[in-house]
Design goal:
Layout: H1 8-13, H2 22-45, H3 53-63, H4 70-82, H5 89-97, H6 105-117, H7 121-130, H8 140-150, H9 154-169, H10 176-188, H11 192-204, H12 211-223, H13 229-241, H14 248-260, H15 264-276, H16 283-295, H17 299-311, H18 318-330, H19 334-346, H20 353-365, H21 369-382, H22 388-400, H23 404-416, H24 423-435, H25 439-451, H26 458-470
The structure holds one DNA strand of 10 nucleotides.
DNA sequence: CTAGGGTTAG
C-alpha cells in the first residue's frame, strides 16, 4: 500500500541548502583549535597517577584561557574516562559546575554511556540527575542514553520507573525514540500488554506512532519464540485498534508466526484481513497459509486456497506445489499429486527432491511398491538426486512389503554413496534379513555398519542371537 | 503496472 507521500524520499535525499558556507565554519574551528591543540599536547604530558593530577589539568585550562571552553572540559573528561581514572571525574565535574557557560548536553550523554559500559549504573543515574546544575537542559538524548543502559540489565530495569518519573519532573519531553526504546524492552521481556499500554500512552499524548514503530514492535513480538499464539493474536488486534496500518511484511510476519505455532486457521484469518484491507497477498503468504491449514487437516480449505491463488494470477513456485501436493497426498489423492508434477513442469517449475519424497511417502504408505519404483526411475531420468529421506522412505517401504533383498541393495547403495541415514533404518533391514534366515547377508551388513562407526540397536543383537541359536556354527561376539 | 518478502520433510 502506498501510504508514503510521493515526496517522502525526495525529502530524505534532498541536499541541504548551502546557507552557511562550510569554509567559514572551518576557519572558525581552526582559530578555536589553535589553543586546544597546544592544550591537548600539554595534557598528554600530565601523569594521571600524580596526586595533583586534576589541579594541574585545571591549571593548564587557565594557562590557555580555556575555562570558558566546553570542548576543553569534554576533552579532559574523555581523557579520564579512557584512562579509567573514574575517581578524578567528580572533582573535575565540580569545577565544571562552578563555571558560567551552558554545558552542552553531549558531555553528559558521553559520561552516561561510558559509565554504563563500565557497569557503573548508579554513577550514570547520578550524573543524569545532576545535569540541570550545569546550566544544561537535559533532553531525550541523555535520557535515552540512560534508559538504553538501564534496559540492559535486571538491576537497571529496577531503577527505570524512578528515572522516568524524575525525568518528567526535569521537564524532559518524552519523544518517540524514548517510547520506542521502552516498548522494545518490554517486548523483549515478554510484557506485551505493557508494551501496548505504552503505545496507547504515546497516542494519548498526541505523539504520532508511525507504522514503522508498530511494525518493529510486531516483528520483535513474532520473533519471540516462547510467546503463545493467543498473545500474539491479541497483540495484533491491539495494534490494529490503535490505528496501525500494516504492510504486507507485517501480515506475513504474523502468518509465519501462527503457522509455526500450528494455528493455520488463524493464519488464514490474517490472510483474509489482508485481502479485505486491500492488500494483495503474495505467493509466499499463500504458501505459508496453505502449509498451515494442511497441518490442521483442513484439506478442503487447502484446495480452495490453491484455486484462489491461481485465480488471483499468482504464480506458484516449488514451495507452493510442495504444499499443495502434500495436501493432496494427505487426502490419499496420490495420483492427482503425480498429475500436479506434470502440471508444474508444463508451467516451467521444476519439481525437486522434496516433491518426490512427498509422493514417495504417500505411495509407500499405500503399499504400492511398483509405483514407487516407477517414481524412482523418473527421478533418475530427470536428474533429481535422492537424499537420505528418499532412501529412508523407499527402504522402509520395501522392508514392510517383504522385499528385503532389494532393501538391502539400496542400503549398500547408500553406503557406497556415503549418504547418511539413521541407524534405525539399518537395524530394520538387518532384522528383516535375520527373519528370512539370511544371516550371512545380515552379518555382512552389520560389519559395514560397524566399520562406519554406526552402532546398531539392541533389537539387532537379539535378532542375530536368535538366528545363531538355530545355526550354532556362528560365534557371535558383541564388538561393543 | 508489478515486484516485493524469503519458506521445505523423519
Amino acid at each position: 500500500m502506498a501510504r508514503r507521500s510521493p515526496n517522502f524520499f525526495l525529502r530524505k535525499h534532498r541536499k541541504w541548502p548551502l546557507i552557511s558556507s562550510h569554509k567559514t565554519k572551518w576557519r572558525q574551528a581552526f582559530t578555536q583549535n589553535q589553543p586546544m591543540v597546544s592544550f591537548k599536547q600539554l595534557v598528554a604530558q600530565h601523569n594521571p597517577l600524580q596526586p595533583d593530577f586534576v589541579p594541574s589539568l585545571l591549571q593548564s585550562l587557565s594557562l590557555y584561557n580555556l575555562y570558558q571552553s566546553p570542548q576543553a572540559y569534554h576533552f579532559l573528561i574523555k581523557t579520564l574516562l579512557h584512562n579509567r581514572q573514574f575517581h578524578h571525574i567528580p572533582s573535575l565535574l565540580h569545577h565544571l559546575q562552578l563555571q558560567h557557560f551552558q554545558t552542552p548536553e553531549y558531555i553528559f550523554t558521553h559520561l552516561v554511556k561510558f559509565y554504563g559500559n563500565a557497569n557503573r549504573i548508579q554513577d550514570a543515574v547520578d550524573i543524569f540527575y545532576r545535569i540541570p546544575q550545569f546550566r544544561c537542559f537535559p533532553s531525550a538524548y541523555s535520557l535515552n542514553a540512560l534508559l538504553a543502559l538501564l534496559c540492559r540489565s535486571q538491576r537497571g530495569l529496577k531503577l527505570l520507573p524512578q528515572v522516568l518519573l524524575n525525568s518528567l519532573h526535569m521537564n524532559i519531553r518524552l519523544e518517540e525514540s524514548t517510547f520506542r526504546l521502552l516498548v522494545c524492552t518490554l517486548c523483549r521481556m515478554n510484557k506485551v500488554a505493557y508494551a501496548i499500554e505504552i503505545l496507547q500512552r504515546m497516542l494519548d499524548d498526541g505523539l504520532g506512532v508511525n507504522d514503522k514503530v508498530f511494525s518493529f514492535v510486531l516483528s520483535s513480538v513474532c520473533a519471540e519464540g516462547d510467546l503463545d499464539g493467543e498473545d500474539v493474536i491479541g497483540f495484533w488486534r491491539g495494534l490494529r485498534k490503535l490505528g496501525f496500518s500494516p504492510a504486507m511484511g507485517d501480515y506475513d510476519g504474523v502468518v509465519r508466526f501462527l503457522v509455526k505455532k500450528g494455528r493455520g486457521l488463524d493464519a488464514w484469518d490474517v490472510l483474509n484481513q489482508m485481502k479485505s484491507d486491500g492488500i494483495k497477498p503474495g505467493i509466499i503468504s499463500y504458501t505459508m497459509v496453505l502449509n498451515g491449514v494442511t497441518a490442521e487437516g483442513d484439506y478442503i480449505l487447502a484446495d480452495e486456497l490453491f484455486d484462489e491463488l491461481l485465480m488471483l494470477g499468482l504464480v506458484p513456485n516449488v514451495y507452493t506445489y510442495k504444499a499443495y501436493i502434500d495436501a493432496l497426498c494427505k487426502q490419499n489423492k496420490v495420483e492427482e499429486g503425480i498429475k500436479m508434477v506434470a502440471c508444474m513442469e508444463e508451467l516451467g517449475c521444476k519439481p525437486n527432491v522434496l516433491i518426490y519424497n512427498t509422493l514417495l511417502r504417500a505411495i509407500s504408505k499405500a503399499g504400492e511398491i511398483s509405483r514407487a519404483r516407477e517414481l524412482v526411475k523418473e527421478m533418475k531420468y530427470k536428474g533429481i538426486e535422492m537424499n537420505w529421506v528418499s532412501y529412508t522412505i523407499i527402504i522402509d517401504g520395501l522392508v514392510s512389503n517383504g522385499e528385503i533383498l532389494e532393501a538391502c541393495a539400496l542400503v549398500e547403495e547408500v553406503l557406497h554413496k556415503c549418504i547418511f541415514i539413521k541407524s534405525l533404518t539399518f537395524d530394520e533391514v538387518i532384522c528383516g534379513l535375520c527373519q528370512r534366515g539370511l544371516v550371512c547377508k545380515a552379518l555382512e551388513l552389520l560389519g559395514k555398519m560397524v566399520e562406519r562407526s554406526i552402532s546398531p540397536g539392541a533389537r539387532v543383537w537379539e535378532a542375530l542371537l536368535l538366528s545363531s541359536e538355530s545355526r550354532p556354527k556362528f560365534h557371535l561376539v558383541n564388538p561393543l
